[in-house]
Amino acid sequence: MGTILKGMSRVPWHDLTHAYGSAQDVPGRLSRVAWGDARTSADALSDLALWLGELAVFEATVAVVPFLWDLAVADSVTSRPGVIELLQAILDHGNPPKIDVQHAAHQAVLSGRATLDTLTGDEDPAVRAAACGLAAAIASHACEACRP
Predict the structure, then answer these.
(1) How many domains does the chain have?
(2) Is residue 4 part of a domain?
(3) Which of 14, 40, 68, 140 could make a disulfide contact with 36, Cβ separation 3.0–4.6 Å?
(4) Do residues 77 and 124 make contact, with C-beta atoms less than 8 angstroms apart?
(5) Residue 61: which domain range?
(6) Do 58 and 18 touch, CB atoms closer than 8 A?
């Protein structure tokens, strides 16, 4: 693996869960997002969105967010706007029975605020638009799990 997903092999994915069970298949999808052509990357990102953030957040969501931030700023990734939109979806969704997981997932997204400066100034208009949407979501974020 290259430097984009450095450290991914140290995550115990088989011990983590997503919407459909074991997260052992997450690294393969992340790799496809990172190095796949446009269609392969988009398909893998669609799977990740469904598994990790469209309906609720999960243990695997917390582990995947730092890698999503890395993918969002990597010029070689063809689906960067979609990666940024997935970060926003994660911030927008919760998991009330597992409020600690929700809090951790949201904090992982919020921890990437500094990266948004780079993304909101990106030369790709789709990346800029997605980054501006995420910046607005971060600025207005106030869920029960994240309140002090």
Answers:
(1) 1
(2) no
(3) 40
(4) no
(5) 12-139
(6) yes
DSSP string, 35-99: HS-HHHHHHHHHHHHHHHTSS---HHHHHHHHHHHHHHH-TT-TTHHHHHHHHHHHHH---GGGH
Return the structure tokens found at 54: 């469209």
Is residue 7 a part of any domain in this protein? no
Average pLDDT over residues 88-117: 91
- Residue 6 located in a structural domain: no
- The yes-or-no verdict on residue 55 having pLDDT over 90 is no
Q: Which residues contact 87 (CB under 8 A, 6 or more apart)?
A: 65, 68, 69, 72, 109, 112, 134
- Res 127: pLDDT: 97
pLDDT in tens, 72-102: 999 999 999 999 999 999 999 888 888 999 9
